[in-house]
Amino acid sequence: MDRTDRASRVIAAPPETVYGALLDRDSLEAWLPPDGMRGRVERWDPRPGGGFRMVLTYLNPVDSPGKTSDATDVVDVGFADLVPSERVVQRAVFDSDDPSYAGTMTMTWHLVAAGDGTEVTVTATDVPPGIDQEVHEAGIASSLANLASYVEGID
């Protein structure tokens, strides 16, 4: 699992606002699920060494079979590193019987001030081979677009 996927976007909100949306349960449920999915956080502990469990449900599972069941992806995420307004590092493990989704994927959310906004770059390393790279990068980009829509109305 040497693959790295990434996406980035400039968001018209300060790093503090973006960082807050990365560590707020209700915010995460609202913006993290990519297009075609909805999410629910089952467990929440926003501190280094803590984490969350998210259930992502496909709105149309016929075209997008899930990793955990026909209609869902369940992922346990640990917070490996939290640097306020700069970085969130997550370790994600999918709940799946399929060995192609096994292992721990690291998702690093880098925040850099860019004028009046924030450049957010998401880098996923050790991506399980069962996750299609093009689909994954599109999903990350979709989540970033949702994040932008969510936080740009806050300030």
Automatic annotation (TrEMBL):
Homology family: Belongs to the AHA1 family.
Coiled-coil region: none
CDD domains on file: SRPBCC_CalC_Aha1-like_2 (cd08895)
Activator of Hsp90 ATPase homologue 1/2-like C-terminal domain span: 12-152
Official protein name in the record: Activator of Hsp90 ATPase homologue 1/2-like C-terminal domain-containing protein
